[in-house]
Design a protein that fits this description.
Keywords: Membrane, Transmembrane, Transmembrane helix. The chain is mostly helical. The protein folds into two domains: about 70 residues, no CATH class; about 270 residues, no CATH class. Helices cover about 75% and strands about 5% of the residues. A two-stranded antiparallel ribbon has the order 1-2. β1 and β2 form a beta hairpin. The protein is elongated, with a radius of gyration of 27 Å. The two termini are about 15 Å apart.
Length: about 350
């Protein structure tokens, strides 16, 4: 019956991924045995199922019995997701740091010792940062989730089978690959902005050899704005982690996604609208490097693109975030229609 499947889902959803299938089989068999003991002979009513589920108890408490009740910084129900996101964060940061080292050595072979020292410094700073932020994110999710649970228990002390959540419809489920791709995207961008920002710009070669980079960003004020960049992408990682943990689109997830995306838009608008973050001498440096002639047609085209690039960057970013919200809302609606 649907009520049994909802109960099994409510219990196993709180358990580590590796245990869910086995415990679901065990729990399903236990419920069938309890119904048979009541001598139903294959005929089971919804009332009898409710009696058995009430006897088994609230799904949260039964899940605690299966995994053992202990105090955790990150509980078993989140630990599998935590390990997966931690691996993604560490690998993504490692890839960016390694790629930066390869670029440095390729462009300037004589400075390989300096590049190697830079690699060590970036590794020592970057990987612990990825570990710390990932752990902090899941610790906050664990804490907030527990607090919310305690509030719910205070409001409703008695439990009934009718309170069970429905099993997620495939149309409303979060695609695991999409959430993972989002985490990878945000992590890589944080790592790039943190450890490779000096390569954001126009690469200038002289006599076939790399000479220098004409930066897009103003190096004097970049450190100040980097904090906003980390927070903006960090909230994006939290958003994708929640999608991964819940496994389905709900109105709460859509609401949280909307809030995070609005914050991201405001943050990006604040960053790109402030002239201090961009290199004020970008066009002059292009001219000094001989890449473009002042007041030429090419100069005017590049200048126009340089001035309008921030606007189109903001438009593309907003479009992506709005679609993220709309897509989630559509999936929630489709899921409700099929229930």
């Amino acid at each position: 019956m649907e009520l049994i499947e909802r109960y099994i889902y409510a219990v196993t959803h709180r358990l580590p991924q590796s245990q869910r299938e086995d415990i679901a089989k065990e729990l399903r068999g236990l419920i069938e045995d309890m119904l048979e003991e009541r001598g139903q002979e294959g005929h089971v009513t919804e009332k009898q199922v409710e009696e058995v589920l009430l006897e088994l108890g609230e799904p949260r408490k039964l899940a605690e019995k299966y995994r053992g009740t202990k105090r955790y910084l990150i509980g078993p129900e989140l630990f599998d997701h935590y390990l997966m996101v931690l691996k993604i964060a560490l690998i993504s940061a490692g890839v960016v740091i390694g790629a930066t080292f390869i670029i440095q050595v390729t462009l300037d072979p004589p400075s390989i010792l300096d590049s190697f020292i830079s690699l060590i410094i970036s590794t020592v700073n970057g990987l612990p940062m990825a570990f710390g932020w990932t752990t902090l994110v899941f610790a906050v999710i664990q804490f907030v989730g527990t607090k919310q649970l305690n509030v719910n228990l205070q409001e409703k002390k008695s439990w009934k089978p009718s309170d069970l959540p429905v099993v997620p419809d495939p149309k409303g489920r979060v695609k695991r690959g999409d959430a993972i791709a989002g985490i990878v995207f945000y992590t890589i961008f944080i790592a790039i902005f943190g450890f490779s920002n000096e390569y954001f710009g126009v690469w200038f070669f002289e006599d076939g050899k790399f000479h220098h980079v004409i930066p897009f960003f103003n190096e004097d004020s970049y450190g100040y704005y980097f904090l906003f960049i980390v927070l903006m992408f960090g909230f994006g990682i939290i958003k994708e982690c929640l999608k991964l943990i819940y496994g389905r689109w709900t109105m709460k997830i859509v609401l949280f996604t909307t809030i995070v995306n609005i914050i991201s838009c405001i943050g990006l608008l604040f960053i790109i609208a402030e002239p201090a973050i961009w290199n004020p001498n970008f066009m002059n440096q292009l001219v000094e490097s001989g890449l473009v002639v002042a007041q030429s047609e090419a100069y005017d085209v590049i200048s126009f693109i340089w001035e309008k690039s921030t606007f189109w960057l903001f438009i593309l970013w907003v479009f992506g975030l709005v679609w993220d919200i709309v897509d989630g809302y559509i999936r929630v609606r489709r899921s409700k229609r099929s229930e």
